[in-house]
Amino acid sequence: MLEISDLCVEVAGQPVLHDINLSLGEGELHVLLGPNGSGKSSLLATILGLPGYRITRGEIRFDGAPLRDLSLQERAELGIGMAFQRPPSMGGVSVSAFAAALGASDILESEAAALDLSDFVTRDMNVGFSGGEIKRWEILKLFLQDPRLMLFDEPESGVDLEHVSAIGQAIRRITRSNDRKGRPRAGLVITHTGLILNYVEADRAHIMKGGRLLHSGEPEALFRHIQSHGYTVPAAA
Ligand SMILES: Nc1ncnc2c1ncn2[C@@H]1O[C@H](COP(=O)(O)OP(=O)(O)OP(=O)(O)O)[C@@H](O)[C@H]1O
């Protein structure tokens, strides 16, 4: 579904990503691990097409077609969506009105309940939500938007342990399900704590460091390696 080859990216004239190669197949869920400032969010922002992220070399293909010249809106229409780390508040737009505008009112109640957000559907999006509530709402929002490629920027940071479980299970269930047109999805998740790995059943993990993909491997083994040896390439690799 997603093919990234030899990707180099600049932000504000500074190179932030170097020679990234990554392939994400239909139904797959991958995680990105790496120290602060290693380029994880920049990679997601470049895939999504946020302004300021300039591809200087290489390419990103979605379903075989290059994304480089497509706007954020065009990429959203193709089926690329992101659960943001720090989304804006949207006063005047209630959660239920947002779901209705997306034609997703029928699934709002059950999906809100799964993320412990039933009491939030009449509230305005993100207005007065706590940090953890925003994270849960971002997952629900993404599901209502129904993208095929789901990008999650640190979905569990600032979230209590019980709700990490709810978020992780929702990510797994959503990513493994087909979209409303019956097409398979895929997901890419940034995680620092690794807690989410207990729930999402990721297929593959990648270590990013200094804007490069340092190593890829089996998620739980790679996370254990990072816990004892830091963000390094495992010796046997
Ligand atoms: N708009 C920008 N202007 C200037 N520098 C930027 C911009 N966006 C990202 N960078 C720089 O690019 C580098 C990578 O940042 P990025 O946010 O992608 O890292 P990250 O791995 O997601 O970090 P964290 O784990 O702390 O969220 C950092 O050095 C950051 O300062």
Automatic annotation (TrEMBL):
GO MF entry, a single one: ATP binding
InterPro entries per UniProt: ABC_transporter-like_ATP-bd (IPR003439), FeS-cluster_ATPase_SufC (IPR010230), P-loop_NTPase (IPR027417)
ATP-binding keyword on record: yes
A Pfam family that the UniProt record links to this protein: ABC_tran
Signal peptide boundaries: none
Keywords: ATP-binding, Nucleotide-binding, Plasmid
Residues of the ABC transporter domain: 2-235
Annotated family: Belongs to the ABC transporter superfamily. Ycf16 family.
Name under which the protein is recorded: ABC transporter
Source species: Rhodovulum sulfidophilum (Rhodobacter sulfidophilus)
